[in-house]
Amino acid sequence: MRLGAAWYPEHWPEEHWTEDVRLMREAGMNVSRIAEFAWSTMEPAEGQFNLDWLERAVSLLADNGIATVLGTPTAAPPAWLTQAHPTTLAVDEYGRRAQHGNRCHYCVNSPIYLDFCRQIVEAMAIRFGQNPHIIGWQLDNEYNRVCYCEECRREFQQFLKKRFDTIENLNQHWSTAYWSEAYNDWRQIPIPIGYHNPGLMLEWRRFITESYRRYQHQQIAILRRYIKPEVWITHNFMGWFDLFDHYEMAADLDLAAWDNYIGTGQLDYTANGAVHDLTRGLKRQNFWLMETQPGHVNWSSINNDLNHGAVRAMAWHAIGHGAEAVLYWQWRSALGGQEQYHGTLIGPDGKPRLLYQEIHQIGPDLSQAGDALSGTSPKAEVAMLHSYPDRWSVMWQKHHRDFDYIQHFIHYYRPLAERNIPVDVISDHASLDDYKLVIAPCLLILDDKLVESLTQFVKGGGHLILTLRTGMKDEYNALLPSRQPGPLSRLAGCRVEEYYALEKEVPLFSIWRDVERGNCSIWAERLEVGDEGHALASYAKSNGWLDNKAAVTMRDERAGRAYYVGTWLDETMQRSFMEFASDEAGVKPVMDSSKGVEVCRRVAEDGRTVYILINHSREPAQLDLPFSATNLFTQKALETPLDLEPNGVAVIAPAASDN
Amino acid sequence: MRLGAAWYPEHWPEEHWTEDVRLMREAGMNVSRIAEFAWSTMEPAEGQFNLDWLERAVSLLADNGIATVLGTPTAAPPAWLTQAHPTTLAVDEYGRRAQHGNRCHYCVNSPIYLDFCRQIVEAMAIRFGQNPHIIGWQLDNEYNRVCYCEECRREFQQFLKKRFDTIENLNQHWSTAYWSEAYNDWRQIPIPIGYHNPGLMLEWRRFITESYRRYQHQQIAILRRYIKPEVWITHNFMGWFDLFDHYEMAADLDLAAWDNYIGTGQLDYTANGAVHDLTRGLKRQNFWLMETQPGHVNWSSINNDLNHGAVRAMAWHAIGHGAEAVLYWQWRSALGGQEQYHGTLIGPDGKPRLLYQEIHQIGPDLSQAGDALSGTSPKAEVAMLHSYPDRWSVMWQKHHRDFDYIQHFIHYYRPLAERNIPVDVISDHASLDDYKLVIAPCLLILDDKLVESLTQFVKGGGHLILTLRTGMKDEYNALLPSRQPGPLSRLAGCRVEEYYALEKEVPLFSIWRDVERGNCSIWAERLEVGDEGHALASYAKSNGWLDNKAAVTMRDERAGRAYYVGTWLDETMQRSFMEFASDEAGVKPVMDSSKGVEVCRRVAEDGRTVYILINHSREPAQLDLPFSATNLFTQKALETPLDLEPNGVAVIAPAASDN
Amino acid sequence: MRLGAAWYPEHWPEEHWTEDVRLMREAGMNVSRIAEFAWSTMEPAEGQFNLDWLERAVSLLADNGIATVLGTPTAAPPAWLTQAHPTTLAVDEYGRRAQHGNRCHYCVNSPIYLDFCRQIVEAMAIRFGQNPHIIGWQLDNEYNRVCYCEECRREFQQFLKKRFDTIENLNQHWSTAYWSEAYNDWRQIPIPIGYHNPGLMLEWRRFITESYRRYQHQQIAILRRYIKPEVWITHNFMGWFDLFDHYEMAADLDLAAWDNYIGTGQLDYTANGAVHDLTRGLKRQNFWLMETQPGHVNWSSINNDLNHGAVRAMAWHAIGHGAEAVLYWQWRSALGGQEQYHGTLIGPDGKPRLLYQEIHQIGPDLSQAGDALSGTSPKAEVAMLHSYPDRWSVMWQKHHRDFDYIQHFIHYYRPLAERNIPVDVISDHASLDDYKLVIAPCLLILDDKLVESLTQFVKGGGHLILTLRTGMKDEYNALLPSRQPGPLSRLAGCRVEEYYALEKEVPLFSIWRDVERGNCSIWAERLEVGDEGHALASYAKSNGWLDNKAAVTMRDERAGRAYYVGTWLDETMQRSFMEFASDEAGVKPVMDSSKGVEVCRRVAEDGRTVYILINHSREPAQLDLPFSATNLFTQKALETPLDLEPNGVAVIAPAASDN
Questions:
Q1: Which residues in C lie closer than 8 A to residue A348 (C-beta atoms)?
Q2: CATH top-level class for C597-654?
Q3: How far does CA A272 lie from the centroid of its chain?
Q4: Could you tell me if A480 lies within 8 Å of chain B, comparing CB atoms?
Q5: Class of B382-584 per CATH?
Q6: Are strands C67-71 and C134-138 parallel, antiparallel or unpaired?
Q7: N or C end of chain A: smaller count of CB under 10 Å?
């Protein structure tokens, strides 16, 4: 397990470094990420590489027992580069080139830029490829820019040509007879600005993905020629950020990593855990938390501090969800620059800030619990399917201003998280083996492979929850020529007669257990129940169309089952439904706990199990452990009941006899 | 009477057509609008016209008893056209050319574009001009774009030259000594972006009107050379949309038509009726409802469905206000394109959606009542005057953020609608003959002709309601060198000493009947009552300036009367005032009804009368008919009282003895 | 004392002038500002000057006893100028040249524009320099535009070169190692658009200041060659407007002036007084109120009228704070142009509007009280320090969306204003001699001179209030390498351990008098109390970090004292604290009064004192005068208690025996 921070030695005179690194070591840190914005320091003029300082920094860290993750600095090209080659700067919707002094302001498709990236990455790879203190590389930083330049447009047109082969094929998939859009020539196709043909918009996102993937791949290919095989390559993604398809991007990386910031307010662990799980699902293995918030940020509308103890609790929350490392951004503020006011561990005076003491506590704990955690990872009986094309499509055509894919996703995740039921968040095209319950929120776009995968899952005895908007579209973002859920209709035991947004709440009643009454909102589908289906919930009297019609259905197939939820239930009904559905599927919580207390579990291949218990509430909590256990921080036996103060953390293993 | 839908055969393989048309016929449809976005299908490459498919579609419709309205497709130029001639694309305020794949993205003044329009329209006219199944033509689709290109600017300068003759004259009318704006040269005059000289802004709107009128006129001239005299030409306007002066645009058309969409929420018939009446007033004759909402739309913030029965009720509401035809947009969704989620009658699977059954009910009813309705139209004793220059001027200089011309207009319309008093909404320059009561809300801009018309109306015994902001401006949007209501001051019996916005409600009391107390808001004028005038309402104590000063006045002239309402009364006082004023004018409701029940009346020249009764409320209603009547849907005698379910409709005629 | 209005004779035929000027005289006016937008009238074509009309206007005014303030017309270049030289037009962030027909749309750095300005100003100076009726000149009008053209960018780069000498120096002060921003070449430096490096942003504002100062200086230099020494030169600033550093701009002027508009709502005198005091502080002498609101404006969201009597009260409020003149904008509306609906004294019909009578009352009063007021000015024992760099820095990095420098400033000003304690608002670098209490709200940026000035002030026995965010930055907007308040830490008796925004209210308790409980919000600093410091208020239990930690501290040094307020107290606690702090400093209110009644005092060098008493409340008020006094309007003795109606004003002097 790794603990560390992002460090920018290039911001400071070299004489400051020793004290900085001493304080890192003293806090129990054993990793540091460096160099990812240091291009102008590494190559102050074209072709003049200056990497000695960087090597000295790596050595100083190593001398203090701190490993290095090296960043390639391509997120911020030097001024001499963009001045000499303005086409390397991205162009915005208004035709303006980006300004120097920002980040990720390059055109990802600029051949000139790619060439300069190649040179700096190769220079770093040659110098540091065999350095024993480098354990991994981070490529660039938080890819996030869209460019509207003519070069990008031409590349996009080439991309479309490769994808559709003929313009007639493109015209057909995009229904371009509509509004006389039909193309005769690839060069007629625009980069969409604002709302446009949904087919065009989807391919534009695929092209952005392809552009970044090519950009990223160039760096990987260079590094792999020079670095040792055990050294990994990653990129720091941004949680729910969705400019490109992260599954595509992660395929080429060795390790997934992300940057977790709360911004305004305090941690909502029942939502935040989903993002950890999302990142873990990118490669279906443990991940790195490459950046996280030391107290407060500087870019949110209200940059409040996290409560005392919450930063430590968040570290363990991340580990509980599969983090192998926790790094803070950043170690120490630069005196200037756009993030002056961001939280750090060390003040501009070079001395620890208050939070340093809280971090200081994590290091020893981690080192105590490290062996037990080693080789473990979260294991789940429940999977939630996630898809970027589905998200994009829903985002562009929300139909109700409050329809948000992520809120809808969390609406299903939260009742599980509240009960300490672990969840894997995975690509909708991932394998579903070994899951008891699969939830596919808003599975808008279907293809044959996906239909087959879900059908086999149910036939194999799995329980599947389908929800509203499922099966409306094909992979080109065109409507399927059938009613929802299209090819899943038989499996689901229902067919959507009509759908629309709700301008106000509508009453409904459910019968999954006793009759319960509640409300739904935002979206309603009127379901026609199929021959083998059953209505589990129905709308009460409202607009005449929905009155007494099915809202939720269920259909059993062999040992398996499929639910279809055609509306957005209120919180209480949702909790009730999810409890019913997970119980029916035979899914078991890791442990019972009182409200606000999270219990995570990591399991090794050999069965070794570690429990991470965190009191996220503002009140003291008490847990009755169902087994006798060892406190891994102290290596002593735990007494039950276990007391946890607010933000208190316990990491425990069943005593030998129980494990 | 016509019932139909917009149909896009070009979106579908020809083998689907037969079933589509069969379902139309089965729903009782007898008209279809087609082709208005089919340019790229009709002319897939420059000069290569392909109209055979369209003729087959027209024939297929005809074979099923369905007439065709043909749309000219100029709202959406093909990609080959704009690619070869980029200047045909409109330029926005940021100097960007519009993108392909949208609609109405042409520059309305582009000579090249006009030339291409000429060619396609002529090709269609030659092919279909004598086709017996075409009953009318729709030009383009929902004109709505403003272009800021240099070509438009030059045309605008030429337009100004024609209008003002000399630059000195323009300088004088626009008061250009102000802010040193004076022009020496027509070429100095800009297209206004954002708020600018009100004189310039008004002429810019007049120029947009002129541009579209010229654009439209080209198509009319071509068509008229080829089509039969009884075939009409129209355009589908957009209700309150105000980019150009619709009276000018409608003058060249044979028929007015509009597209009526609710968007979010449910029908407010007391406001929606005003838009029907507005459209009817464009040519002072019955109109077509060219597009309306089949359930829900896809472009609003919440795309909810209309309640069960409301779509049918809306059709009869339109007919009650003078619609001769009701067409739904659209028949069946294209699988792709920006409007995938819009409501339709037929699903993407080619099968009826739920709403189809509701529409299905309209056809037979219409066919039963058709003979009785034939030749009838609404007749009103009340006219409300409407003016685009007034609206524009108020919109640009609201003075209070909540001052909205349309809301103010409806504030006067609604109390009449609630009482089933029919209203003609007409141009402020239209003839006022035969009206008992004329309301001129916000008659900002006066000219001699208008003053004379109103004066003669009152002298002839009419009752006239003038309201706040009347008579402030001349036709160049310059202040009149007098106090409001300027040349109407004597007629109105008052003079505005001061006006301004109200930051909060102000109390006032009225004496039109008993003393009533209420409030006003948004706008206040302090009225000096003239020699022959009387105060009907006065402000109570508030800011010191208004205390006890007149807010509403009245003056009788011979048998006629003029009111002046200097503020925005609250709903209750407004209802009371409008009841007083309409009673005094001798205006009679069509019929009494309970709240939410609308009664419309259509009358033929020979006196034949049809009543359309609609229960827009959510509760069952009962009406005592004042005469014995025939139910035109069943042709049977009606029993009184008549029961109407929510969204229930009855169309009745007085039994022969009462008619 | 002067009373007058802005008059635009060029808007009207010359035959209207006589009546206009007669009405001015009748209202007791003795000054008029003219010509400041009349360039196109004065120079209708390049080099053709026409100033005869202007001279006739000046003479007509003079014949009626009305002096003239002449405006240079450079805020609105003629169309022939910008047409021939488009580079004289400012460029916006989107690269668009400004349009003609607006104001302040020039590029302030355009050499061509500067040359044309030189010509028109010189022509005016030659003609009017010795005219005995001109008492002052106003340069341009409300400088306010930023230009993003390449010329400005080059000038900015030159400015930076002069300021930093070497690019290495700039790189160091801006910490450009951060995000690889380092510059090799001055030409790489952009004009910042949106949020950018805080160092760059600060210099950009300094450059704007420098640009306007050079622009302004050209006009001053020309005028001074031709005008009489006693004739002053001013510019009409806009209160809190902060595009440039007003202290820099005012340094070159003889007189400060500003334009005071309420917009929506009514006067808040406890906030408005601060802006008068700010303007008085620009040159630390009395100022002109060059424009103020005659009833209502036309550009706010709700353009309501000021209550009856409030306009008069505002005039005296201004005088009470040091105005030497009150001018209304404007005398009479132009019939056209963007401000048609703005309040005026004369209607478009040339006749007085209602407000004219209220103004009419001011003239005689002013003339009665004039002798007593002559040579007097407000004198304060309290100074509040104000700084543009601090404001800019806070505005760009608010950290909490509701953090507003001005609101924070007024939070300290209001409790003093409510108690009739006069305040000087002065530059943070001004001399602090003679003050008992100095408040330095948000003194973010420190330099040695400022630290020395504050230290000496306290050592000399002064009381100093420092507040949150003090001492974070150096003059380059870089963080100081120390904890807040940095070099003021010893003086303040505390050190900021941590700071951040508060997402909700936090409880705290104070002990400055009895224990009081209250809340704070928006911002919290946790203070470590120094050896000689004392905690005056502490946070109660909240987020764990702040619990029981100091929020407000105090430290005595010899006879002096420094407070440090580390949070934003609620209104009640703030009032209590400010009462405590001002009492402790020995500061005395001018007079006690009931809520809403303002008492201002103006004192002459010889001790002559005038009191201005204004009832800003909506209720009658009564004052017990602590001395026997003369009513300066009537020159009669006043009886005590003195009754003041709402918006009532009394201007009094102590009777000879009391003075």
A1: 479-482
A2: mainly beta
A3: 10
A4: yes
A5: alpha beta
A6: parallel
A7: C
